[in-house]
Design goal:
single chain, mainly alpha, Growth Hormone, Chain: A, 2 domains, globular
């Protein structure tokens, strides 16, 4: 965004751009908090006397509660002011980080991650609708792009910074470092968010009606398989880089930075090229990311080649969200909130299943088996999607 654009948008009296930026920061902190265990998996497992596969379930448990929260938030909190709900969810994120930092047992870690999952699912289920109330209709795309910018920043820097700082201040220190940032974000929400009275309660019947549409159900399953394949691999990337590529902490951080930074390219490219022909693009994430994961199984010993492959994977990882959300907006435009809740639930459930499947394969067999499981899920997703025509509304 140029300076001129920034001045123009922030000067508009009918747009709460400060609140939008507060939500963007919340997104960055949510993503960082949710996936920080990926870059700290090994030391966290050692510190809690657990296996790496068990510690990986810290991501799956947050996904489980995120699924439940995304489906129920608009019903349970339907009559509450949306500002109150967002502030409360941010408070849960703060409590979760403190609990992780002081955790002395695997059970405490799981409880803390469950709280984070409620925050993740609740926030994402409400986020788009809140943005639509903060800015004029013509500015909604800009507001959404700012909010998702927080996701891109976290994806680029959270993992490499986590692994690097974890080696210096310990994994507990990394989570403590996030605490003041989240506390500041909570205060920012209190100050910047206007009052957002509820506009009615979403009916569970609407969710069921949308889910019963065959083309949408197929697309939802395809999304779950695509994200499931991604997180079967991504959750256990650090053990792979340590045991197969055999990198030190510095190189590990560089490779994670390469992967995350490539996400900016994916976001830009998807925003530029994803359009009316979205059907043909639905299979690209699973196809390309699956091929990259397969290549890593055979070519992971070279740090340079691994870095190149991870960059390609990172591009498609961020493009995947834009592709599937564009598909959703074009094909369920009559019930976008219901479809959005179902998409958030499906994605979080796929993250849960990916972490569970990957952890079982890692503990039961090897990291190669984990990556092979990811490739298999990608292949199933690609076959299901096909040309993508069966996922378009009649």
């Amino acid at each position: 965004m140029t300076d001129a654009t920034f001045i123009e948008t922030t000067s508009r009296p009918d747009a709460a751009w400060g609140a939008v930026m507060a939500m963007a920061l919340c997104v960055a902190l949510l993503i960082a908090s949710e996936f920080m265990p990926v870059s700290l998996l090994t030391p966290m497992a050692e510190g809690l006397s657990a296996t790496e596969g068990q510690t990986g379930q810290a991501i799956s448990i947050s996904g489980l509660f995120a699924v439940a929260a995304s489906m129920l938030i608009t019903t349970v909190a339907g009559r509450l002011n949306r500002k109150t709900v967002l502030v409360a969810l941010t408070g849960l994120m703060l409590a979760s980080l403190v609990m992780v930092a002081v955790a002395q047992s695997f059970a405490m870690l799981m409880l803390a991650r469950a709280l984070l999952g409620i925050c993740v699912g609740g926030f994402w289920a409400l986020a788009t609708a809140v943005i639509m109330r903060l800015v004029p209709a013509s500015e909604v795309p800009r507001g959404l792009s700012l909010m998702y910018g927080g996701q891109a920043i976290a994806a680029a820097f959270a993992a490499p910074m986590g692994s690097y700082l974890g080696d210096i201040i310990g994994w507990r220190g990394v989570f403590w470092a996030l605490v003041p940032l989240v506390a500041g974000n909570l205060v920012w929400h209190l100050v910047a968010l206007p009052s957002l009275p509820a506009r009615g309660r979403q009916s569970l019947g609407t969710l069921i009606e949308v889910l019963r549409r065959p083309y949408f159900a197929r697309g939802l399953i395809a999304a779950m398989l695509s994200w499931g394949a991604a997180f079967t691999m991504f959750t256990y990337l650090r053990p792979y880089l340590e045991t197969v590529t055999r990198v030190d902490v510095t190189t590990l951080s560089i490779l994670l930075l390469v992967l995350g930074s490539a996400g900016f390219i994916g976001t830009w490219a998807a925003g530029r090229f994803v359009g009316n022909n979205v059907a043909a693009q639905l299979k690209l994430p699973a196809l390309i990311m699956g091929a990259v994961t397969l290549a890593l199984i055979f070519a992971g010993a070279s740090p340079v080649l691994t870095g190149l492959l991870l960059a390609i994977w990172g591009v498609m990882n961020t493009a995947m969200s834009v592709i599937f959300m564009t598909w959703m907006s074009q094909n369920v435009d009559d019930a976008p909130e219901a479809a959005g809740s179902l998409m958030v639930a499906a994605i979080q459930l796929s993250i849960l299943l990916g972490a569970v499947i990957g952890g079982l394969l890692l503990d039961g067999f090897s990291i190669t088996a984990t990556f092979a499981g990811s490739v298999l899920l990608s292949a199933i997703a690609t076959a299901l999607i096909g040309s993508g025509r069966r996922m378009l509304k009649p």
